[in-house]
Amino acid sequence: xxxHLERRLAVRLREFLLQRYPGATLPNxxxxxxxxxxxxxFAIPVFPFAKSLRTAPLKIAETxxxxxxxxxxxxxxxxxxxxxxxxxxxxAWTALALAANQKAPTTAAVGKILVEHTxxxxxxxxxxxxxxxxxxxxxxxxxxxxAGREVDIQNYIDNxxxxxxxxxxxxxxxxxxxxxxxxxxxxxxxxDYYCWDLYARVSQWYExxxxxxQIRAQTLHxxxxxxxxxxxxxELISTAVLRRHIETMDRLDIEYDFLPRESEILHLHFWDAAxxxxxxxxxxxxxxxxxxxxxxxxxxxxTGSTTENTGDTEELVxxxxxxxxxxxxxxxxxxxxxxxxxxxxxxxxxLGRDFGYxxxxxxxxxxxxxxxxxxxxxxxxHFGDVEEIYNVIDARQSEAQNTVIEALRGLGHNEAADHYTxxxxxxxxxxxxxxxxxxxxxxxxxxxxxYIEVSGRKGFGxxxxxxxxQLIVSAKNEVDSRHPQLTETGRLSxxxxxxxxxxxxxxxxxxxxxxxxxxxxxxxxxxxxxxxYSQYAVVRATSIxxxxxxxxxxxxxxxxxxxxxxxxxxxxxxxxxxxxxxLASAKTSYIVNQCISTTEPAxxxxxxxxxxxLFNAFYHRHPILSxxxxxxxxxxxxxxxxxxxxxxxxxxxxxxxxxxxx
RNA sequence: GGGCGCGUAGCUCAAACGGAUAGAGCACCGGAUUUCUAAUCCGGUGGUUGCAGGUUCGAUUCCUGCCGCGCCUACCA
Length: 662
What we know:
Elements: H1 2-20, E1 42-45, H2 47-53, H3 57-67, E2 74-80, E3 84-89, H4 91-99, E4 112-116, H5 128-146, E5 150-154, H6 162-174, H7 179-186, H8 191-208, H9 212-224, H10 229-250, E6 258-259, H11 262-267, H12 270-280, E7 285-286, E8 296-299, E9 324-328, H13 336-347, E10 356-362, E11 368-373, E12 388-394, H14 398-410, H15 414-418, E13 420-425, E14 428-430, H16 432-437, H17 444-448, E15 452-453, H18 464-482, H19 488-508, E16 516-518, H20 520-523, H21 531-547, H22 552-558, H23 563-570, H24 576-586, H25 588-597, H26 602-621, H27 630-653
Helix pairs in contact: 4-23, 4-24, 5-25, 6-8, 6-9, 6-10, 7-10, 9-10, 12-13, 13-14, 18-19, 21-26, 21-27, 22-27, 24-26, 24-27, 25-26, 26-27
The structure holds one RNA strand.
């Protein structure tokens, strides 16, 4: 609703200014929320207009105020020095629309969006860094879907790389296990934990004797031959670990539609098709000398002119050695960036090849997750060939991501390149204290750092399932003591919802570019700016209605609070404290929009917290059920119902559900 | 060396697109409701936004230079 009004205001304002000041070039119109409610609901700084309209800011503001005429949903405007035009929303009008749960007409965006996230190497258990990725990605998917977009969720599986090879080495050369033994281990409950430890041991084994690295090379080579025993073992391990990742993420309500695997990209020769096109377009050049002699290289992203050369020479600009990114090695094999280019051409439907598809995992809600295959099933959904893509990948990979984008540009697919977004975020590290708690010995230097990077290779980190288990135990203790009369399963279910809420909120409350220094004390907190705080506000709202023997949503639908009633409680002295709740409630889709256009889900967490905070203060100040003025009681109940609805809505976009009691 | 990013209260973080008195949570101190359950609420302490310049009516935000920190910079994936 707020967003709807903002757009209406912007359009009207532009129209008015163009008509009132013909010929003037208008700067971009900025409309922002004022710092305080008393000032109004929209603030328009008019300073930027002063220059182009050659008029004093206050005069422009006054002209607009006096002459723009009535706008539906807008109650009035005020000029505020030194140069703001503050706009007040028609409160009763908005409250009526909100109470009726009226959806503002949305401009239906078309075209499918592909969001890729999680993408964990299938050789060890998922850790907290992977959780941040998956939660950011999943929340972004929910944001897009809330905004009416069609989204496919993909989780890219690198099942042929060194990381998987290392675990294969661990099983076959350190533990000397047979394929049958590995198979039996892989069916054990937390096989990914087993691999986690083994992976760390393999890394040590390499360090003990560099000769051992040759085993890795052999194994890596073996994996590429689909018919080999090594490949079969790799497939067995990676599939079992992948299944564990899917299960772990399912605990957090994170689902996928399709799991494209590198093995299929390899064996279905995606690269060959891409290679031909890249050569034709001159994106790749063959090096005949220097350290990259015999390699096909391209210009590393962000190094010098990627646009057309200024024309003095037709010759290809020589790329200096250090600006070269090797795509095809001198032995003819392709590196991962090359595979990624091919894969992204497929995503945009530019490759001319497709995967085979078969079903891999069925979620409790009957939704199927598909996986790539050499020979797929006849009937399958259509993946790829999308309009836009978002890749949720941490900031360390931004150069590689940009190189893929440059390759698309080089191929002439500028539109595709423009619709390729690297959803970049910073890593999750551990505080030194946390590392010590986990039993790691720290160097003196490490102790002074504010955070320490996790390392799967060293087995250094907090596993996703462990963290979730701890959160559940901790929440369960609280629930047990608060609700001893409930059944064990009932209490566990509540504790799980709280744990998931705490975890998802925790990962979303930081902005993307902030490194999360993970600390158990903070992550396990259920007080203050946390998920449970917001969940609790909803529980309180629900409980008011329970006591009143009414359902909040039907109450809203059937309520016959008139515009005059809303006017009475929302306008005038002391009304701002109520209006703040309605105003915040009106902002959900505005916030969603902001999250999408900035690829920043953290605003959503802030919104949930603000709603909860406003509600809790309101809850404390105003007894509702004992209110003797019937009209006022109806109004207060409506306020509770609307805030509750928007809070549930916001939390659900964050993938957080609310327990019946807490 | 080059590229990207960061530096805000004791700690962890906000403040999108330059805007009004830089806000939260935690911690600390002091209070509140025999209620619609205190996983709550109210108040207080706490700031030269790393430093120095510049642009602007206006800079935490943009530019330049320093200082400090992180990540990337493999014929690994």
